Amino acid sequence: MRRTSASLVAGALVASLAWASGPSSPAVALDPTAGVADLTQDLNQILSDSRLTIARAGVVVKSATTGEELYATDAGKQLIPASNTKLFTSAAAVETLGLDHRFPTTVLGTGRKAGAVLTGDLVLRGTGDPTMLAEDYDALAAKVAASGVKVVTGRLVADDTWFDSQRLGNDWAWDDETAYYAAPISALTASPDRDYDAGSVIVSVAAEGGKVKVSTTPETDYLKIVNKATAGAETDVLIERQHGTRTVVITGTVADPYQEWVAVDDPTAYVSTLFRAALAKHGVKVLGATATGAAPDGAKELARHESMTLGELLVPFMKLSNNIHAEILTKAMGRKVAGQGTWSAGLKVATDFAKANGVQVINMRDGSGLSRRDGFSPGSIVQLLTAVRGKPWFPTWYAALPIAGDADRFVGGTLRSRMRGTPAAGNVHAKTGSLTGVTSLSGYVTSADGEPLVFSIMLNQYLSGSPKDIEDKIAVRLAQFTRAAAADAPAQLRSAAEGQAGDLECSWMKPVQC
After folding, report:
1. Is 63 a catalytic residue?
2. Is the dihedral of CA 201, 206, 209, 211 positive or negative?
3. Is the pTM of this model over 0.90?
4. Mean pLDDT of the chain
5. Can 16 be counted among the known catalytic residues?
């Protein structure tokens, strides 16, 4: 069973605080330049890999204690960061909203309550909580029933006005529209699991009695399922929502159970069906239709649900590289600072935060890194990573980064299959990033001398063969770094194919996860 986010954060704070403070100073070598020269030679050799011949590679390594630049190549070049964008979004969100921030979801009644009858509308109002499950909407419905309301003469109104109505990022790829990792953004949404994949439904298939049975998590009739699959000797099945519709078409053959995460077309409408069904289950009858709109002033609160804190949410957000969390936090920042739950307002907050902390090369188009128009330099990423070490919230944020080689999904995250059995395992705390032809790894590592280092590796425009193992070799070499002399021969890394998911962030590749 998954441990709670709170326990995961608490469990890593001691180590995080120790790293944040760092040693008073690195060990002094007789020739303090020897180790740096050897490091430069080794990193140059690693980056001479033939897969990078026509690619763009930007790498920066600095001492976190002295600020000394130990290695740099194309430090100031703007490159596509992929999910390294989340470093900026998460840091700005914690600074702006606070670690204790929660997302409330409330139910309000308009009009007058007489006995068991509410003469007016019942309003479900959201503020973007990405952790809302079907059971949470059920609990809200139970609270409405417990308040004495049995009949609502008016409508069920879904109030998602905390954010604007733009559901998808401007630059997101059309063929990602039905993918759960690019689900529409709404102030009212629901997750099917405790990875908190907001805005999606799990569609499962299984062969039973020579036929293919289909089920959804949560149970819902919101999606229209067209089942064309047949039972067969092997599982080779496609589960896909048709663009711009609620229709999910299933084709192929099924032998073993299989499931796919599918983004809904409209999270607000989807949540409305979940909540209406929950109300009916608890004996609350809404006579009117379902509508959308803002709750009127004076509406009385009947029920409330509060999310986990942002400090706790950082764990599934950063460990699993959750895009929807990033975009919800972006709009939440805009709402708090400018009163506008929009991408433009939220991105200005994130960009202003970065610039205030010395970042120079930055172009943010979304909060997650799905946009291929996002642009950062490795030098800017290192600047941000260095600056936030002095923030009071740094230990919690640092603990939420994926940790190399730790098999626990909510500790190792997207690095859990990487650098195992090397000096980097349990040492490197870093954010991964992957898109087609793009990979990045940026974060922190402690050298063999006990010196805390900050690094950013950005590889763009390679044509074939994921170069994530190149990132790993660099990170392992940094863990071996000593200022006195050359490191021992690099530890054996996993094979290039092991634990990798190609051109997408591994946690986006459900149900198979690297």
Report:
1. no
2. positive
3. yes
4. 91
5. no
